[in-house]
Design goal:
Blueprint: H1 3-20, E1 35-41, H2 67-83, E2 87-93, E3 108-111, E4 115-118, H3 124-127, H4 132-141, E5 146-149, H5 162-165, E6 166-169, E7 174-178, H6 185-195, E8 198-202, E9 219-221, E10 225-228, H7 236-248, E11 252-255, H8 258-262, E12 269-273, E13 276-282, H9 283-288, H10 291-298, E14 302-306, H11 309-312, H12 318-321, E15 323-324
Parallel strand pairs: 1-2, 4-5, 7-8, 10-11, 13-14
Antiparallel strand pairs: 1-15, 3-4, 6-7, 9-10, 12-13
Protein name: Amidinotransferase
InterPro entries: Amdntrnsf_FN0238 (IPR014541)
Pfam family, one: DDAH_eukar
């Protein structure tokens, strides 16, 4: 897909959504950050080291150089977010040894009260994504009291890949997490104890029986609704518990089919723009949603589709490319 086609495609989908979307309420929500960190790749490629447990990846064989396309997709995505009044801290990456750098949400997260967490990563190549300049920017632009670094757990084989491994409910203080090689229960417990979240662990598998590698592939928690691939949760009792827990907070639970999960429909993030809350997701994901699902989302958030088909070849979508900033800006 060329830059021009991708841009036209995104604009057309945005116009389509406007026909049946309701203007989102503009009130503040701790769930929806108004600033984000993104990383623009200059040497994008699909990471062969992570392919073993990420079946969403598409091989680079015969694909040619994908870097210009990925660069253009993230550039345009950042522009669209900024046009909606969202602050985007856009960093450049020219390191060919960190192929997944476009997914910064896995190695750090930020939290109200001035806290930053740095996470232990399974793949050696992903550990090279951690950047002091991003942490320094957060300290200079926002009120940061403490940076808590869990990367020391890596030699013990204890991994927790940020808001890929966990889908955080900042309102009810729950950390939903699928058990996988990238999400260790001990690391999760340590994070939850430090950051005052309740861990909710569960098993989830795709139709072929493989473990879901990251929780944010099948689940998105917004202020007034949650999207989740319920059929992938293997324990029926646990499935009911999770639905009840989400509904108890007043959220509407939107079930996603396995086919919709394959199209990254669960890999979305709610943000706060200048005119209210926005659900940012990929054009691939949007096209997989039904009109009824879109209508339910549109009650409280406008949909903002971002065209990133090249980036999605690496096995992640819009949520993975965005690290939310839940910090207080300095004066």
């Amino acid at each position: 897909m060329t830059r021009a086609v991708a841009a036209a495609y995104s604009r057309a989908l945005t116009n389509l959504i406007g026909v049946f979307s309701v203007v989102a309420r503009s009130e503040f929500s701790v769930q929806a950050p108004s600033a984000v960190v993104m990383v623009r790749p200059h040497r994008f490629t699909v990471n062969t080291e992570t392919a073993a447990d990420n079946r969403f990846q598409i091989s680079n064989v015969d694909a040619g150089d994908l870097s210009p396309l990925a660069y253009a997709e993230i550039t345009r995505a950042a522009e669209l977010l900024q046009e909606q009044g969202i602050t985007v801290h856009l960093f450049e990456d020219e390191d060919s040894d960190a192929p997944d750098s476009v997914f910064p949400n896995n190695w750090f997260s930020t939290h109200a009260g001035g806290y930053v967490a740095i996470y232990p990563m399974k793949a050696l190549s992903r550990r090279r994504e951690r950047r002091s300049d991003i942490i320094d920017m957060l300290k200079s632009r926002y009120r940061v009291q403490e940076v808590i670094d869990y990367s020391g757990l890596e030699p013990d084989g204890l991994f927790l890949e940020g808001t890929g491994s966990m889908v955080l409910d900042h309102i009810d203080r729950v950390a939903y997490a699928v058990i996988s090689e990238r999400t260790d229960p001990i690391a999760l417990e340590r994070f939850c104890a430090q950051f005052s979240f309740e861990p909710v662990l569960f098993s989830a598998k795709d139709p072929s029986g493989l473990d879901i590698y990251h929780t944010n592939v099948l689940m998105c928690v917004a202020t007034d609704f949650a999207m989740i691939g319920l059929d992938m949760i293997t324990d029926s009792e646990r499935r009911r518990e999770i639905v009840h827990r989400l509904e108890r907070t007043g959220r509407r639970v939107i079930g996603l089919t396995n086919a919709q999960i394959e199209k990254f429909a669960g890999n979305a993030i709610e943000l706060l723009g200048g005119n209210g809350r926005i659900l940012s997701l990929s054009t691939t994901a949007l096209l997989a949603l039904t009109k009824d699902q879109i209508d339910m989302i549109s009650v409280s958030a406008r949909l903002l589709p971002l065209a990133i088909p090249t980036v999605e070849r690496a096995g992640g979508s819009v949520r993975c490319t965005i690290a939310g900033v839940h910090l207080t800006p300095r004066d």
